[in-house]
Amino acid sequence: MPEPLIAKHRLEALVDGVFAIAMTILVLEVKVPDLVDRRSTAELLHRLQHAWPTLAAYLLSFCLLGLFWFWHHRLMAKILRVDVPVFALTLWFLALVSFFPFAAALMGRYPVNPVALMIYLPTMGLLLTTQAANFALALHRGCVDPDIPQAEIFAAQRRNLRGCALFFLAAAPSAARIGPISLILCLLVAGAFFLLMRRYRTPKAAPAA
Amino acid sequence: MPEPLIAKHRLEALVDGVFAIAMTILVLEVKVPDLVDRRSTAELLHRLQHAWPTLAAYLLSFCLLGLFWFWHHRLMAKILRVDVPVFALTLWFLALVSFFPFAAALMGRYPVNPVALMIYLPTMGLLLTTQAANFALALHRGCVDPDIPQAEIFAAQRRNLRGCALFFLAAAPSAARIGPISLILCLLVAGAFFLLMRRYRTPKAAPAA
Amino acid sequence: MPEPLIAKHRLEALVDGVFAIAMTILVLEVKVPDLVDRRSTAELLHRLQHAWPTLAAYLLSFCLLGLFWFWHHRLMAKILRVDVPVFALTLWFLALVSFFPFAAALMGRYPVNPVALMIYLPTMGLLLTTQAANFALALHRGCVDPDIPQAEIFAAQRRNLRGCALFFLAAAPSAARIGPISLILCLLVAGAFFLLMRRYRTPKAAPAA
Amino acid sequence: MPEPLIAKHRLEALVDGVFAIAMTILVLEVKVPDLVDRRSTAELLHRLQHAWPTLAAYLLSFCLLGLFWFWHHRLMAKILRVDVPVFALTLWFLALVSFFPFAAALMGRYPVNPVALMIYLPTMGLLLTTQAANFALALHRGCVDPDIPQAEIFAAQRRNLRGCALFFLAAAPSAARIGPISLILCLLVAGAFFLLMRRYRTPKAAPAA
Lengths: 209, 209, 209, 209
Prior knowledge:
Four copies of one chain form a homotetramer. Helices cover 73% and strands 0% of the residues of chain A. Chain A is mostly helical. Chain A has one domain (8-200). In chain A, helix 1 packs parallel to helix 4 and helix 6 (150-178) runs antiparallel to helix 7 (180-197). The longest helix of chain A is centred in the last third of the chain and has 29 residues, at 150-178. The A-B interface holds A 4, 6-7, 10, 13-14, 16-18, 20-22, 25, 29, 87, 91, 94-95, 98-99, 101-102, 105-106, 109-110, 112-116, 119 and B 12-13, 16-17, 19-21, 23-28, 30, 32, 35, 38-41, 44-45, 48, 58-59, 62-63, 66, 69-70, 73-74, 77.
């Protein structure tokens, strides 16, 4: 019975809504400063200079959310139907997306504090991993459009896993700042993703299903 | 006259919007702490540890809202047209949805205070009850898709009522913490929902309308 | 040249988004109180009791926004195309909608202060008037679906004007609390709307265009 | 390979969402004042009088965002498909849109401070320039609907560039308040846009592609 399916257009509306709000909420962290002298150019400039890390974190996080949206959108375009497990993982993905502004705010306020990194990087890592896992789950559960040739599906999944692996490699120097265990963990996860990519090697001359 | 109907796609857009915002607003309650020493790892960790109840309440409430969205979406898929009474009850449902972040924030800030439970649990109970009532109303007013066999409709409504009954049973221990009257009320409501389920017993060999 | 038209589905998406956010933002005014003793039931109950006017203003304003959405949605269903002047008036309508949470917050915080009424009532009056004016403008500019019989269009417009007139009548006692000039103004506007209704009297046996 | 395209309806949903939220967030800056005497008409009126610049900035910025939405919507109607570079520039446009409420808040709080202008005007300038650049990019990359005659496309682009040029001319007096370099820069940019318009002069008797 194909009954417990979720209408794709409504899930997309929810996803687009959560992304749009998360992206706009990022900027709420950039606060209008309270000035002693309302007309003082020097004071306002000085106060806004302190807002630079927040602004940079805003722009970076906005672009990252945009990338995640793009990536999610590309994967959803390959999915024909959404069943309950895929929906549950998408919900967890959305929970991470709407948590992201908090991680970005922490990063913007305390850029030099390693704890901010300890929140920001794992949030991003989870976002990337969840996305790759969701596509693998959709593939496993037969939710992917059967008209798309398997070579293309596998190429998408390899791109997902490579993205995850490269992120964990890129995060290694930051992880090293937190501690040696973080660094080792980070490199192990990156290695695991590289290994996983082998599962999605394109079979030679795979006929389209 | 079939005139005073609401376009389903626009009501869905409103519902998806309210849900997306309520889900994203939940995290606004997780505040970035103000540190004395901006670089102190220990201080930031210590301050974030205090945010754990808030974070847990955020995740739980996000998942609950996701479940409510899923449930609402499943019922709406069975509804063919929306008339004014069904719209009015949907509006009341949305009012509860957008009130939910407040109840969740209260719960996250004061997890050990019984009053927070006294707000959180009834809000959830009302959400569940409203949803079940809305589907019963839609059924009563002929808004449900006549192509769906009655057995399936009745099964959906039994699931709705069982969900309500189980929620009130699960809430009983928490209700007991508030006082004996709450506990009795909670159990009576749960019983009432179990009794109501009998109204939607599938008639044997019901022909599809 | 029918070029400068706005795609209706995108304007609807914008309207639904602004309404969804305005409705959800209302509840942000209901603040989680700061307690001295985090476990004190009495203190939390006492603090929440002070939140009742805010809560009541929230629920009332939520319902009003829901009504405005419903009303707008009913009028938009009759409009076939949106041109620049209709869009401009819709934008002004949206500016009022997103200003509404501020008026509601003022009303919830200072329910006994006449100034709060002086903001809340005119905002509502402007919302109602804008809506009626927008439909009249769409009618005047030929944006209304020509397949709808004129009798039905005129009945909708009479309902719009009656709604405005009744609102200004209902607001008269509150206006009287502000001052005699407000009362007179309020009654004059109500009268003007009743007079305007005569313009939309259904012509006898109007043939459908 | 026409693969890396973005579904237009989903990008529109994201854009509409970001605009709706940015427009509604503008009003969050209009704060409900804290009164010493909750019933004092004089005190509340006095406090709200100070909110006038904020309110005026709110209305102006709401209308500007509405205009940007309208303009973006008109250009998107001419675009048939969205590829990665056009998406990237649209993302940057959205980052500016969601930054706009901060610039508006700064302007509303410190209308007499030249630094507020130094943030508000360049944000607007960047919004206008990005929009014109995005359409030029879409044109360059063959994303524009080939059924639209080139004369019409070129007219749209001339309107875009004229809009940018006129904005920088109109901003010149404000730029002069910041300093002579700003003024010169502003006039140079305006001139550059006027020169650029010549590139989009309609060729005589251009056949539709």
